[in-house]
Amino acid sequence: MLSDKMQEALNGQLVAELYSAYLYLSMAAYFDAADLPGFANWMRVQAQEEVTHGMKFYSYVYERNGRVVLGPIDGPPTDWDSPAAAFEHVLAHERKVTGLIGGLVKLAVEEKDQATGYFLQWFVEEQVEEEESAEAVLRKVVEAGAEPSALDGELGARVFKPPAASS
Ligand code: FEO
Fold first, then answer.
1. What is the spatial distance between Cα 20 and Cα 43, in angstroms, rounded to a whole number?
2. Where in the chain are the domains?
3. Which of 11, 29, 115, 165 sits at 20 to 30 Å (Cα–Cα) from 4?
């Protein structure tokens, strides 16, 4: 049984993951408008991943006999100064999400909820990958400078892979 505090925090993270999807979809629209379809593809795949992250929280709350309660999702920004500025935002956002996951891990310890602590380990590892991949693309975008289209093919090759169903 989840404590009320833990349930509320997990529901909050579900919404935060859906906001991430919304943010990356907004970035996809920005790149589509800028005629960079490969960049837009990368963001769409990222948005799909975020929906799966949100659904992991949904399923987990449900499995623990909790109640999923969805709050409002903020509107995302719609414009960035440059492709590099968008990827700087991705990295800053992922660092923020890492902090949110860290807060949930801390709460799980305080609530003596080992099952939730174990569930959250997947996200602890995922955030290492999320930050690493955002840093790697940002580096390439900065290197490409005024010619972001040189990277468009590479980013266009990204394919959505659903995470393992076990967690
Ligand atoms: Fe759901 Fe980008 O972490």
1. 11
2. 4-156
3. 165
Q: Tens digits of per-residue pLDDT, 35-88?
A: 999 999 999 999 999 999 999 999 999 999 999 999 999 999 999 999 999 999
What helix, strand, coil percent values describe the chain, rounded to 5?
A: 75, 0, 25
Ligand 1 centre to CA of 114 (Å) is 22
DSSP-assigned letter for residue 96: H
Query: What pLDDT, in 10s, does the model give residues 107-129?
Result: 999 999 999 999 999 999 999 99
Q: Is the CB of 113 under 6 A from ligand 1?
A: no
Class at the top of the CATH hierarchy for domain 4-156: mainly alpha
Q: Is 23 in the pocket of ligand 1 (CB under 6 A)?
A: no
> What is the value of pTM for the model shown?
0.96
Distance CA 106, CA 15 (A): 19
CA of 123 to the centre of ligand 1 (A): 8
Is the beta carbon of 50 within 6 A of some atom in ligand 1?
yes
Is the pLDDT assigned to residue 166 strictly greater than 60? no
List b or e across 40-50, with b for residues whose CB sees 16 or more CB atoms inside 10 angstroms: bbbbbbbbebb
Q: Which residue has the tokens 């040189």?
A: 150
* Contact in structure between 115 and 64 (CB atoms under 8 Å): yes
